[in-house]
Amino acid sequence: MAFREFPSLFEQPEFGQSLPVQISEQIARQIFEGEYVTGQRLKEEELAKVFHTSRAPVREALYLLQLEGLVERLPRRGTVVRAYEEKEVHELYDVRIGLECLAIDQLQKAWNDTCSQKFRRVLERMEVALSEANSDEYAELNDVFHQLLFELGKNQILWRIYHQLNNVFIILLQASTQEAHDMRTSYEEHKGIVDAMEVGDFVLAKERLVNNVTHGKDRALQAREQTSDGA
User: Fold this and answer.
1) Which CATH entry fits the domain spanning 86-229: 3.30.310.50, 1.20.120.530, 2.30.30.140, 3.30.365.10?
2) Largest pairwise CA distance in the chain
3) pLDDT for 52-89, tens place per residue?
4) pTM of the model
């Protein structure tokens, strides 16, 4: 797969971010979009040409992506888009469930009508995406929903820990296409979480959250098996 050509980032307006961060975010976007696939090498010299820069900021960008778990360095191969073993997928989702349940505990303390309204707006957009069978839009809104748990809970430490892992979860689910019935089930699960929080039953909200995230893990594992079978 060829690397996409971009105009020099030095010629772009100042975004307040360092060049390595800008490069890492662009590469991450391309990984999310499936332009760089699992196991694909990311060569410093090629990326330097793509971004019209030297290899130093590219090397730092790849290091940032390695910290986020999107790439890994392998002996004699260099940097490649990372693949996760089944055991790692289970462990990642166990951590996600723990973090999101903690987020709901924090959200319980801050819950008000504004919180309810924000979740309802996301649910409305999810329903539109569902009606249009727009799986890409639905996946983005799904991510927004779960991030909102942390944003409204207002625990910055918890949010930073989750944010560090969130890109990995996006990648794991990127390979699994949700069919219409999967999206419908997912939508009802998310609606159920909000319904429970709105009546003050945050224990039930966590139970429904665990069920929803577990289904996400199942899809990620199924997609991984299909990829392995097709390799």
Assistant:
1) 1.20.120.530
2) 57
3) 999 999 999 999 999 888 888 998 889 998 888 889 88
4) 0.75
